[in-house]
Design goal:
191 residues, alpha+beta, Aminopeptidase, 5-stranded mixed beta sheet, two-stranded antiparallel ribbon, 26% strand, transferase, EC 2.3.1.4
């Protein structure tokens, strides 16, 4: 894969995590070609994705690429170059902690047929590595504490299980409580 198509430099990819993957699997930054390699499909294990066109994908990708000092999306591919895992860390610039940086982990996803191979752990390890290499004083994430129904397609539900124990195995500890306020369902991105 041509490096100019990658979201950020491969210098931020952990060699240790790459070595820990099953044979033939690869860890790399998101590519502008990944619309065709299953990136959106793997994210669908998390929530409804929507009907995203290739043009929309590339518009978002190009925004992230322009801000690739703040947004780091990684993927894991299987031997056929299909994306089977993904995650993102974005870097927030703070005034506190001497204008420190905080890494926020989001959208950890592993294809349901690939779960049980420690790929989620590898995604988290790779994102923590990026957080450390970019100078974050901490890396945080939000996760579910309860079992709930997840709408995977309009009208189709699956169970989403709490994932606190998984993130504790990844080295995270409970710290605070997340609060959320959602705008109405029809809200569209405007930025």
């Amino acid at each position: 894969m041509a490096s100019q198509n990658l979201l950020f430099s491969t210098d931020l990819i952990s060699p240790e995590v790459q070595k820990a993957l099953p044979p033939g699997y690869k860890l790399r930054p998101l590519s502008s070609d990944d619309y065709e390699h299953g990136f959106l499909k793997v994210l669908s294990v998390l929530t409804v994705i929507g009907d995203i066109s290739k043009a929309q994908f590339l518009e978002r990708y190009n925004y992230l690429k322009k801000h690739n000092h703040e947004y780091f999306t990684i993927v894991i591919t299987d031997p056929s170059d299909t994306i089977i895992g993904a995650g993102t860390i974005f870097v927030e610039r703070k005034f506190i902690h001497n204008t420190g940086l905080v890494g926020h982990i989001e959208d950890i996803a592993v294809d349901k047929n690939q779960q049980g191979k420690k790929l989620g752990l590898r995604v988290i390890q790779a994102l923590k590595y990026i957080g450390a290499k970019t100078g974050c004083y901490k890396v945080i994430l939000d996760c579910s504490e309860e079992v709930r129904d997840l709408e995977i397609q309009p009208g189709k539900y699956d169970k989403l299980f709490h994932n606190v124990p998984f993130y504790e195995k990844c080295g995270f500890t409970r710290k605070e409580v997340e609060m959320a306020w959602y705008t109405d369902e029809t809200a569209q991105a405007k930025l």
